[in-house]
Design brief:
The complex is a heterodimer of chains A (108) and B (120).
Chain A: E1 4-7, E2 10-12, E3 19-29, E4 34-39, E5 46-50, E6 54-55, E7 63-76, E8 85-92, E9 98-100, E10 104-107
Parallel strand pairs in A: 2-10
Antiparallel strand pairs in A: 1-3, 3-7, 4-5, 4-8, 5-6, 8-9, 8-10
Chain B: E1 3-7, E2 11-12, E3 18-25, E4 35-41, E5 48-54, E6 59-61, E7 69-74, E8 79-84, E9 93-100, E10 107-110, E11 114-118
Parallel strand pairs in B: 2-11
Antiparallel strand pairs in B: 1-3, 3-8, 4-5, 4-9, 5-6, 7-8, 9-10, 9-11
Classes of the chains: A mainly beta (108), B mainly beta (120).
């Protein structure tokens, strides 16, 4: 079973700064199958990034994804207060078919 | 416009069977490549994938919950149903359904979720 480990657990930054969130897989992943989601309190997750680096529809270019193999990164530049949320990485296509990381809470 | 909505009981007793329905619009589960999945999230905890059903009626389950889950679809009514047997308080969670638009794609649309509490 593929395990995704996210770090840090909580990240506190100021508006205008850059956030770097990490997701490490227990075994090598195809970059095609790594996604990032944003979840605000009381809301469903929202797809931000798929295939490790492609932005989903309507996602501003302040959000970018990178990485390959076992190490993936979500970068959010020029932080805004509304970026406060929990961010999850997800692999899709392995066995079990889908796995989520434990999440990183971003406080602005 | 794609929408999904979960429905089901807000409260179930331990050992009972939970039945949840995902009613969707804006796409068809008979379209090649399309799937619907169920995901849950205990209060304050991470997301956990549960099950998936695809356009060909193939079904996939979480390894840890496989013996308790059944997923099915009614394509004509645009519904996907998840049943989970032998409910326990640790199954208290918000249950979401989500769409996968093609094979090898992530969850691009989610329902708003439904909170299920397991308590006697």
């Amino acid at each position: 079973e593929i395990v995704l480990t996210q770090s840090p657990g909580t990240l506190s930054l100021s508006p205008g700064e850059r956030a770097t969130l990490s997701c490490r897989a227990s075994e090598s992943l195809s970059s095609t199958f790594l996604a990032w989601y944003q979840q605000k309190p009381g809301q469903a997750p929202r797809l931000l990034i798929y295939a490790a680096s492609s932005r989903a529809t309507g996602i501003p270019d302040r959000f970018s994804g990178s990485g390959s193999g076992t190490d993936f990164t979500l970068t959010i530049s020029k932080l805004e207060p509304e970026d406060s949320a929990v961010y999850y990485c997800q692999q899709y296509g392995g066995s079990p078919m889908y796995t989520f990381g434990q999440g990183t809470k971003l406080e602005i | 416009q794609v929408t999904l909505r979960e429905s089901g009981p807000a409260l179930v007793k331990p050992t009972q069977t939970l039945t949840l329905t995902c009613t969707f619009s804006g796409f068809s589960l008979s379209t090649s490549g399309v799937s619907v999945s169920w995901i849950r999230q205990p209060p304050g905890k991470a997301l956990e994938w549960l099950a998936l059903i695809d356009w060909e009626d193939d079904k996939y389950y979480s390894t840890s919950l496989k013996t308790r889950l059944t997923i099915s679809k009614d394509t004509s009514k645009n519904r996907v149903v998840l049943t989970m047997t032998n409910m326990d308080p640790v199954d208290t969670a918000t249950y979401y359904c989500a769409r996968i638009r093609s094979v090898g794609a992530p969850f691009d649309y989610w329902g708003q979720g439904t909170l299920v509490t397991v308590s006697s």
